[in-house]
Amino acid sequence: PADYLGCFKDYVSGKKFPYVYGTVFYTSLTIDFCLLGCADDGFEYGALMSIDHQWCLCGNEPNVDLSRTEPVSDLECDALCNGNLSQICGGRYRISLYRITLMISTVSI
């Protein structure tokens, strides 16, 4: 599970979360895919952004103090996820930001 924190402004030159999970997603990005990938790589936050393509961004600490960064209207996060058209994957220079609340780990035997 994850907590939705809101829609925030973000820019390529100063991304709040510089780690890109996977690659650029043209047709397959979903919220679950992004958050599970970020959690699997040990990150506390996952964010989705859509410009000309869709990105999954991860991190443990935002580059900017979120308490000093006002979220924008959720209406500005208006891009449908290519992998699930009922989900929102941020917007143009906007991120849909989540805090991952349950880390799933696997045990190798």
SSE layout:
Elements: E1 2-9, E2 19-20, H1 31-40, E3 45-50, E4 54-59, E5 80-81, E6 84-88, E7 94-100
Antiparallel strand pairs: 1-7, 2-4, 3-4, 3-7, 5-6
Could you explain how this protein is built, in words?
The chain has 109 residues and is mainly beta. The two termini are 26 Å apart. 9% of the residues lie in helices and 33% in strands. Strand 5 and strand 6 form a beta hairpin. The longest helix has 10 residues, at 31-40.
Structural class: mainly beta
Distance between the termini: 26 Å
Helix segment tally:
1
Note the run of SSEs as H and E.
Answer: EEHEEEEE
Strand content: 25-35%
Unreliable stretches, pLDDT < 50, 5 or more residues? Answer: none
Kindly report the average pLDDT value: 84
Taken together, the total number of domains comes to 1
- Strand line-up in the sheet with most strands: 1-7-3-4-2
Helical percent range?
Answer: under 10%
What is the overall shape? globular
Find the count of extended strands (DSSP E, 2+ residues): 7
Largest sheet: 5 strands, antiparallel
Evaluate the radius of gyration: 13 Å
Keywords: Glycoprotein, Membrane, Signal, Transmembrane, Transmembrane helix
InterPro entries: Kremen_rcpt, WSC_carb-bd
Membrane topology: Single-pass membrane protein
Organism: Mytilus galloprovincialis
Question: Brief overview, please?
Answer:
The protein is mostly beta strands and 109 residues long. It has one domain. Helices cover 9% and strands 33% of the residues.
